[in-house]
Design goal:
Blueprint lengths: L4 E5 L10 H11 L2 E7 L5 E2 L9 E2 L6 H13 L8 E6 L4 H10 L4 E5 L7 H4 L1 H10 L4 E4 L11 E5 L6 H15 L2 E9 H9 L6 H23 L5 E8 L1 H12 L3 E5 L5 H7 L2 H8 L4 E4 L2
Parallel strand pairs: 1-2, 1-6, 2-5, 6-7, 8-9, 8-11, 9-10, 11-12
Antiparallel strand pairs: 3-4, 7-12
Helix pairs in contact: 3-5, 9-11
Length: about 300
């Protein structure tokens, strides 16, 4: 399903504006409503440096200036020309409040850059970014580095693991591929660390032979999937052995992808222990936009 409501984040900096043009382009392409979101944390009470004076109580309309500035940006930003943009101030910076707000507003795609600055610094960097990607119910499109204003992905790389949650990743990737008439590469990584434990319960052949057998099975499953579900789309499949994040980045680079699509779920507890957040590593290392989808 294509998004009918898209949100893009800003902290009023020049860096955050880099995501405006691609967000606007997507809104036009999908005929979607666009929300301009600012995360603003302001405590209701500020402690006085002199205890005998007591706490300073802030007025209820402390967010008024921020809201006014956001409205002005929505109306005057050149990237939003021809679009009706709705400003939205989120009165918190926590992962939970952001995710709840996006859900209550029925946002179906969040667009954000990865620069770290002021109010969005913790959101866009390190473990906080990983938590947001995991917490958001909607797909999150992350831009880093130089952003092309006319975002039109023509070569889409899709990481897939044949899990039930992974079906949501394929559904979104297929919709985007059809809209943008993009060429797609589906890719499965036979993860050595996780596969070792699966192999231990079998041990019918050498470990390397086992990995190659799994790789072959993945290519067979891709062939069936492509024949049944990807009619009318130029698509190819690949399966490799290695560590997930490294293989995803390598394969996407070899394919010359201009968009990486992957899920944020983990298939087993052992994978989470061994591999950490694959999505975080890919978002950090990818030179192109990354679309993460919660399965």
């Amino acid at each position: 399903m294509l998004p009918s409501r898209i949100a893009v984040t800003t902290d009023f900096s020049a860096e955050s504006r880099q995501a405006f043009a691609p967000a606007a382009a997507l809104a036009k392409k999908f005929s979607a409503e666009l929300l301009l979101v600012h995360l603003a944390q302001m405590p209701p009470v500020v402690l006085s440096p002199w205890p005998e004076v007591g706490a300073y109580i802030l007025p209820d309309d402390i967010y008024g200036a921020v809201e006014k500035r956001l409205v002005e940006m929505a109306l005057t930003e050149s990237a939003f020309a021809g679009l009706r943009v709705r400003p939205l101030v989120v009165r918190d910076e926590s992962v939970e409040v952001l995710a709840d707000t996006l859900a209550s507003e029925h946002v179906q795609l969040l667009v954000t850059p990865t620069h770290g600055y002021s109010g969005l610094k913790r959101f866009l960097l390190g473990s906080f970014a990983d938590r947001v990607i995991r917490a958001a119910r909607c797909p999150v499109l992350v831009f880093r580095g130089d952003v092309k204003p006319d975002f039109e992905p023509r070569r889409v790389y899709v990481a897939h693991d044949f899990s039930v949650p992974g079906k949501a990743v394929l559904a979104v990737a297929l919709d985007w591929a059809r809209v943008f008439r993009a060429k797609v590469r589906l890719h499965f990584v036979v993860e050595q660390s996780a596969s070792l434990y699966e192999y231990a319960s079998d041990m019918r052949d050498r470990f390397q032979d086992y990995l190659e057998r799994v790789r072959g099975q993945a290519l067979e499953r891709f062939g069936k999937l492509i024949r049944e579900d990807w009619k009318g789309v130029e698509v190819e499949a690949s399966a490799t052995v290695g560590q997930a994040a490294e293989e995803i980045l390598r394969e996407a680079g070899e394919f010359e992808a201009d968009l990486i699509v992957l899920g944020t779920h983990s298939r087993t507890v052992l994978e989470r222990v061994f591999l950490g957040s694959v999505a975080r590593k890919v978002v950090t290392g990818a030179p192109v936009p990354v679309l993460t989808i919660r399965g």
